[in-house]
Write a structure and sequence with these properties.
There is one protein chain. By secondary structure, the chain is α/β, with parallel strands linked by helices. The protein has nine helices and seven strands; from the N terminus they run H-H-H-H-E-H-E-H-E-H-E-H-E-H-E-E. Strands 3-2-1-4-5-7-6 form a seven-stranded mixed β-sheet, with helices on both faces. Helix 3 runs antiparallel to helix 6 and helix 4 packs parallel to helix 5.
Length: about 240
């Protein structure tokens, strides 16, 4: 797709994304924006999460919104997740939410290029009350680490890494996930640039490719959640 219309032309953007005519959509009003903001902030956060957010702010590292975190927690609980892989540890905000939704004996495997970030995440997990054996921290580039993880061994894969590698993350996730497992991608709205018809950088073009690929895959059952900066989720269909 060569470009998406500006937010005021959301109807056409939806039609372009679907590739077929659709019913006219209501424009996003100020009231609806307020409702979305209310939904995104619906879940209160404990001290450990707030501490992890402070560390992220200090290092200028983006972290998932409380709405996105709550969605991840819900999805992990719905999947009764025992094994979750996370691309992009950050300072532990998303990891805490995932662990809160996982089984008490579940293990989070989290990958990040920056060991310092993972040190913050370890401290945040301890402060949140999780035992040390609940998380496995692997420093390194995701596309070098993921091939070493077990085929079909994961209930959920959460991707919050390099946007230029999104399609590679999807390929690895399809290998890692059991049938019925979930893959989730954070930040697919790209601050509104995904539906903006103006010229966009390569990372936004890659997000658009990801959206089309997930939507058109016969192996995935997708949805796009309007929390935070957009959370793309899909279930891997059974064999």
């Amino acid at each position: 797709m060569c470009g998406f219309p500006r937010p005021a032309d959301t109807v056409d953007a939806v039609r372009q994304l679907r590739g077929q005519p659709g019913e006219q959509e209501r424009a996003i009003t100020a009231n609806r924006q307020t409702s979305l903001a209310f939904a995104d902030a619906f879940v209160a956060e404990a001290e450990a999460l707030l501490w992890a957010r402070d560390r992220a702010d200090e290092a200028n590292i983006p972290s998932v919104s409380s709405g996105t975190g709550a969605a991840l927690r819900l999805l992990a609980a719905t999947a009764d997740a025992k094994a979750v892989a996370e691309i992009g540890t950050g300072t532990g905000v998303s990891g805490i939410y995932l662990l809160l939704g996982m089984r008490p004996d579940g293990v989070l495997t989290t990958v990040d290029m920056e060991p310092e970030r993972q040190a913050h995440a370890k401290a945040a997990f301890r402060a949140a009350g999780f035992a040390g054996n609940r998380a496995r921290f692997i420093p390194g580039r995701a596309l070098e680490v993921l091939p070493r993880l077990a085929d079909g061994g994961y209930d959920l894969v959460f991707c919050d890494g390099d946007r230029l590698e999104l399609l590679d993350y999807l390929d690895e996730s399809m290998r890692l996930l059991r049938p019925g497992g979930l893959v989730c991608f954070e930040g697919v709205f790209a601050d509104g640039r995904t539906v903006d018809s103006a010229a966009q950088p390569a990372e936004v073009q890659r997000i658009r490719e990801l959206l089309r690929t997930v939507r058109e895959s016969r192996e995935l059952l997708p949805t796009l959640l309007p929390v935070g900066d957009g959370l793309l989720c899909a279930v891997r269909r059974g064999a």
